Amino acid sequence: MDGKKTEVLHIPAGGNGEDNIDLPVAMIIGEEPGPDAVITAGMIPGEFSGVLAAIKLLHELSPGDIKGNLKILTVCDMADFELGSQVPAYSNETDLNHSFPGKLRGGYYSLLAAKILDEIKGADYHIDLHGSESHERSVPFAMYHRGRHGELNDRSHEMAYYFGAPNIMITETEGRWSDKGCCYSSVYEEIGIPSVLFHTGGLNMAFSEAVRLHIEGVKNVLRHFGILRGTPQPVGKPQIFENMEIVRASKRGIYYRRVRAGDTVKRGQLIGLLTDCFGTVIEKLVSPVNGKILYMTESSSVPGNGFVAAVGVSFGK
Predict the structure, then answer these.
(1) 167 φ/ψ angles, rounded to the nearest 5 degrees
(2) Which 3 state secondary structure label does DSSP give 153?
(3) Tell me, what's the pLDDT at 206?
(4) 164/140 Cα distance (integer angstroms)
(5) CATH code for the part of the protein at 244-314
(6) How many Cβ atoms from other residues are within 10 Å of residue 302's Cβ?
(7) 261, 294 in Cβ contact below 8 A?
(8) What's the pLDDT score for residue 253?
(9) pLDDT tens-place string over residues 67-118
């Protein structure tokens, strides 16, 4: 039976003294049998481009377009989305994006993570839509988890490739930056299906270009895997990164950036300066590797141990 369905799941939070959880779930049931895919969005507060893209996909796609089923979790973290803030609603817990696979008897984020994985189980493919947080700017990139299963790695890479972003980053549990606790890596490890994260946008805004890139990239992936009718568009050769290095300030201060998102950098190159309130330089921040700035802070105020930049590590470096 084809059609569209929408439902807000009301999940009791148990005896944790926290609010009950609302999880909006939509389903497009195709007119013909085929693979099943799940799209998630809104994992992190302030990442609005993925949320708007997910909602637009729900309205643009019809059952006649789909073979199989397409499930869309439009806003995974409603509590934080409604706050419109980068600060988690339950600051005594790890945020949702690092709470997977979760526990049914855990706190708010842990329980929500477990329920989201339950919604993904049974699918053949998973896509997670992200954008940088309120103080960050990002270039478009796709990222996927590399584990012990070669065929699954290849299928995840295939998904990342057909998204069409100019950058693909490969992450691992024990890598330079560990993807442990993330949704896409947990889908790979716990459910055993290919999963990819698409990332573009930022600054607490849903820029039209970022939303468009999400939508066109998702559609191309769905076409390639036979879920969406039509022929996939050819894509260019992406730059591949072996994980990333996170640059943080050791002190708090006023930040002056010397590079932009998308710039290629060399090991030891100056990324930015940190000064005190009188303009005296107190820290020089440099790139630890050869690579590219995938996303970085646009804020002039940086706290101690505050995020400055994510540098994609050039393949083979």
Answers:
(1) -135, 135
(2) helix
(3) 63
(4) 9
(5) 2.40.50.100
(6) 22
(7) yes
(8) 97
(9) 999 999 999 999 888 776 555 555 545 789 899 999 988 888 999 999 999 9
Q: What per-residue confidence (pLDDT) applies to 15?
A: 52
- Tens digit of each residue's pLDDT (9 = 90 or more) over 14-52: 655 556 899 999 999 999 999 999 999 999 877 888 999
Domains of the chain by residue range: 3-237, 244-314
The tokens 């700017």 sit on which residue? 137
Q: From residue 161, give the alpha-carbon distance in Å to each of 143, 220, 231, 260, 288.
A: 10, 10, 15, 24, 27
The model's pTM is 0.93
In three-state secondary structure terms, 133 is coil
CA–CA dist 16, 101 (Å, integer): 19
Write out the two tokens for 18: 């926290």
Q: Report how far apart, in Å, the C-alpha atoms of 59 and of each of 5, 20, 26, 28, 215 are.
A: 12, 28, 10, 10, 12
pLDDT, tens only, 252-275: 999 999 999 999 999 999 999 999
Which pLDDT score, from 0 to 100, does residue 32 have? 93
Q: How many CA atoms lie within 13 A of 4 on its CB side?
A: 14
Give 279's pLDDT tier (boundaries 50, 70, 90).
very high
* Domain 3-237 shares a fold with domain 244-314: no
Look at the alpha carbons of 70, 213, 211, 46 in this order and tell me if their dihedral is positive or negative.
Answer: positive
What are the strands, taking DSSP E only, across the chain?
3-11, 21-29, 32-41, 67-73, 125-130, 136-145, 167-171, 195-202, 239-248, 253-257, 264-265, 270-275, 281-286, 291-297, 301-302, 307-314
Instruction: Enumerate residues 6+ apart whose C-beta is below 8 A from 177.
Output: 171, 243, 244, 245, 246, 310
Q: Are 40 and 77 in contact (CB under 8 A)?
A: no
Correct CATH for 3-237 of 3.20.20.70, 3.40.50.300, 3.40.630.10, 3.40.50.970: 3.40.630.10
* CB-facing half-sphere around the CA of 178: CA atoms within 13 A: 5
